[in-house]
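Per-residue structure
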Amino acid sequence: MALILAILGISAYWFTYSWLPTYLQGRNLSVTKSALWIIVNQIGGIIGLISFGYVADRFGRRPAFS
């Protein structure tokens, strides 16, 4: 099950970031602005991963469902 979810996650990530520049250009964004949008999104993801790691270490493991 975890393998299927990992494959789906990677496929969704690849599909989104390979198709997104074309979509943004269709919305009248230049190539430079669409690339900048993707870069900012990636940097936000890195910051989010680091900060949520800190939060998980600080507060410990909690059950996802009660």
Q: What stands out?
A: The mean pLDDT is 85. Helices lie at 2-26, 31-59.
